[in-house]
Amino acid sequence: MLRIQCPWCGERDETEFRYRGDASRSRPDAGADADAAMAAFTAYTYERANPRGWHQEWWLHVGGCRRLLRLTRDTQSHEIRSVTAAMER
Amino acid sequence: MRGPHRLTSGLLTDAAQPLGFRFDGQRMSGLAGDTLASALLANGRMLVGRSFKYHRPRGIVTAGPEEPCALVDVIGADGREPNRLATTLTLEEGLVAESQNRWPSLRFDARSLSDLVSRFLPAGFYYKTFMTPGWAWERVYEPLIRRAAGLGRLDASVGAHATPAETLHEHADVLVVGGGVAGLAAAQRLGERGLRVVLAEQDALLGGGTLLDARWDAWRQGTCDALAVAAKVRCLAHTTVLGAYGHGVFGALQVLPPAETLQFGGLRERLRIIRARRVLFATGAVERLIAFPGNDTPGVMLAGAALSYLRRYGVAAGTRPAFFLNSDQAYDTLFAFAAAGIGCAGVIDPRPQSLAADRARAAGIEVHGGSVVEAVRARGTALRVRIARLDGRAAGALVADGLLISGGYCPQTALAVQLGASLHWQESIAAFRARLAPAIGQLAGSARGVSGLAAAARDGAAAADAIAADLDRPAQIVGTTADIAAVDAGARVLRLPEDPDVTPIAALWEVRTARARGKAFVDLQNDVTSADVRLAQREGYEHVEHMKRYTTHGMATDQGRIGGLVGSAVLAQARGVALSEVGRSKPRPFAQPVAFAALAGGEVGQHLKPRRRVPLHDRHQAAGASFVPTGLWMRPLVYSRQPGWEPVLREARAVRRSVGITDVSTLGKIDVQGPDAAQFLDFIYANTFSTLAVGRARYGIMLREDGMLLDDGTTARLGPQHFIVTTTTANAAAVLEHMEFHLQAVCPQFDVVLTDVGDQWGQFAIAGPRSREVVAAVVSDLELSNQAFPFMAAGAAIIAGIAGRVFRISFSGELAYELAVPARHAPAVWQALLAAGAPCGIEAYGLDALNSLRIEKGHVTGAELNGNTSADDLGFTRMLKRQGDFIGRVLSQRAGMTAPDRLQLVGVRPLDTSQRLRNGAHLVAREARSTSLGYITSSTPGVELDGWVGLALLAGGRQCVGRQLLGVSPLHDEQVELRIVSPHMLDPENARVRA
């Protein structure tokens, strides 16, 4: 059970949050050349790295403040190194 | 030699309080404070069950939760409860228990024949044997095996929530797991530092090893008294920590003492979820067995367990037992037995000499040094113990009425390993020690491999100091002595009793001599022998995790606690590598079997999920509605208890012919405001919203990024920077999450605020050709004429005196309005609308009628927006905007998403209007019936149209309009001839909604 330090709500159980995937990638530009956009969106939608170790991930506090958090978590030890708000990049 | 019996009253038992109980129908008597196991031993009962696979007779082996053999059924008022451990089950007056896995009786078991043919039942036997023919597994092999194998049996039906339980949450600075000497010393230290401590001890009382040594009684009492009054320390007895889940979260199961069960209305267990900043594992060590032929014979017991029975319950495991030991600590039992006047048939010790053996010889006890037990056989009520020298030479035999064995002690590291602790081999104790990151916590005492009670106490205090320093609570008084002590009520400082000097343990895992035949068990509960482990290794299952699964070693409810390391050692020897290289299989939660009822706690029946009620729930109920759960919501299905379609069609026809009213409050409503609101909705929706005029509404579709449809609904623009989005009931939470994620992760530059107002508004649809009259009667401040308030208009209005909103939108296909008012006013407004509609014969209609109306009209819901459909499939291609980015834009343009042979939305109608349709029926061509071309998603008897109407997803459906197909439902053994039609079966020109 992860305990996530929400900047607004304090330390809360993982069950209050929804995992929203890899936060290290950003949504591609749809305005690019059509083939390039298709390739970029295919990768963005379907391809996932499965790193062992530090990982950037999105967690949405659906059972709390509804803020989206960017976590840096070790996928092996579950240690969470940092929690920041998505909108405060 | 009379075997086990009660000598005197023990530490826990009360000789003045006899309790009657029954075991296998036989009346027996025990004492208050007994466990079932100690009471059975006191009654001379050693044989308590038959084994899992070979049906061998089994006795009581341990005195605690690590027990592999003494599992019983308890028959209570609520039926039969299988697999209870006799060694932890508190005896109660009138307890009825039965032995397991025997037929027809415990003393004679017909299936023990399987023991005789056991060389045909090696590890992997089932995998190898019952392979062919394939059909035989389900019909022949599995039922046979299931009847013969297994432990206890569940009753076919158990009373509703027969074992009530509850869930509690605990918060602490430090969780101390284990209330033995190290845990008690640590808890006291941590409490003195002002830290909030929860101590969980699985035993019914605190003390651990100090309970077995009278010299420690004063220290234990003094420390427990001090902890009982310590402000921030809570000690929970009879509480087993079941699992460690990381980030300081632990699950623990507390068994309530009978008095509390009575006080709390039959509550028997509490699941405690403990959140702690640090953990201190003072979980102790578990004595392990030695593998030798016949080591499962009833009468063979762990030496430490025999000491427990003597000290705690005053029960002697025999009158003249023999001992097979390899460490000085295990001699404690021998000396305690001698002090209690119990005889000894002799001690067998593989070590040529030791300090403890010298003390035993000085007391006149015969010790066979440099020797091992090569085999044990039952002979009537006695055991014949054959001895061999270490070099294999036979060295005679002993006759005893018990054999008390000890192969050493394994630190209990399972919970620490669950938190990522690494294991390191420690030759001096012949066991693995765990190393845990200090940021998580510490291990202390015998759990860390420390021997001796005084040493463990000091180790507990030192671990507590380390944690306190880590939590910035170092000792307040500088220069306190390193030693620890307890202060009793008379303010006397109690010194720690001294630990005796000991000769180190000599590792001994298995005894194999050429002469001795028979099974040497490494796992008594799953009947796994050392030969099975070697077979697994020979067949290629060399890794300890593979061996475990191939042999089932350690997979029983006791998780192989007393033989797990022995199995690893046998495997290491077979592989010819060091035990440290083999390691141990990974322990997982739960530490002991847990009843589902305990995990469920109060979340059962109606309390499993919250139940959401619409503001008008009571009105609907009063109007005779039948309700249907949709997600968490209870929605009126039809305002009748009468089964069948008639009441549904009556409601629906009122809408088509006059006017009806329905509650749509469960729709998701998201308020979107901000300077960039329109731009944001253009990104979220596949169609355009920035061009929508204030005071107008538009139907919109949302895609997922992969191009599939996510949800649909109507969105109205209430102001230049203010929109109200409606979602389907089922997707309300998912759409809000989808929008929040994209607003914050993808469009953080947009100045937009999303507010969930789903619960704030009660909303009703008034639909039918006469709906305008009804709405006009209650609405003021709004001109409702077709010119002033056309189809898809939206605006604020006063509704029955309440400030609300009016939307001219229609799901039914009729002229219709949706009125929204603050939820608290919903009942009054609903009432006003019913009154206003009375002259028109207004009917309230439920979800069934709503569904019938929309199917006939060709509107889609979750049955069609099923996650597999694209915008093109449902005929929405023209809605996709040409300009600008939106979620799903790029991937919705993939060739496959618009392929002409995809399943497309169509209408279906039976040729013979007397025939019904079935949801899920497959569409097939008459000439190729084995190929499904699609399926019916929704169907209903027509409201206006003659006969049934349905919607379907059909391969290349739009090209098939006019074609005849069969609708086949093998489940109902039905087939119906169909005509494929446009999904817009009623009023395709949309004239009614614009009326």
Percentage of residues in strands of chain A: 35-45%
Spatial gap, N to C terminus of chain A: 27 Å
> What count of helical segments of chain A does DSSP give?
1
Instruction: Write down the oligomeric state.
Output: heterodimer
Number of β-strand runs of chain B: 53
Q: What portion of residues of chain B is helical?
A: 10-25%
Computed over alpha carbons, the radius of gyration of chain A is 15 Å
What is the percentage of strand-forming residues of chain B? 25-35%
Largest sheet of chain A: 4 strands, antiparallel
Poorly predicted parts of chain A: none
Low-confidence parts of chain B, pLDDT < 50 over ≥5 residues? 477-482
Structural class determined from secondary elements of chain A: mainly beta
Assign an overall shape of chain A: globular
Termini separation of chain B: 103 Å
Compute the gyration radius of chain B: what is it?
A: 38 Å
The biggest beta sheet of chain B reads:
7 strands, mixed
User: For the largest interface in this structure, which chains are involved and how many residues does each contribute?
Assistant: A-B, 32 and 25 residues
Description:
The complex is a heterodimer of chains A (89) and B (995). Chain A is mainly beta. Chain A contains 1 helix and 6 strands, in the order βββαβββ. Chain A is globular. With 995 residues, chain B is α+β, with helices and mostly antiparallel strands. In chain B, the strands form 14 sheets. In chain B, strands 9, 10, 11, 12, 13, 14 and 28 form a 7-stranded mixed beta sheet that branches. Chain B has a 7-stranded mixed beta sheet with strand order 43-44-45-46-42-36-47. In chain B, α6 links the parallel β10 and β11. The longest helix of chain B is centred in the middle third of the chain and has 18 residues. Chain B is elongated. About 1% of the residues of chain B have low confidence. Chains A and B meet through α1 of A and α21 and α25 of B.
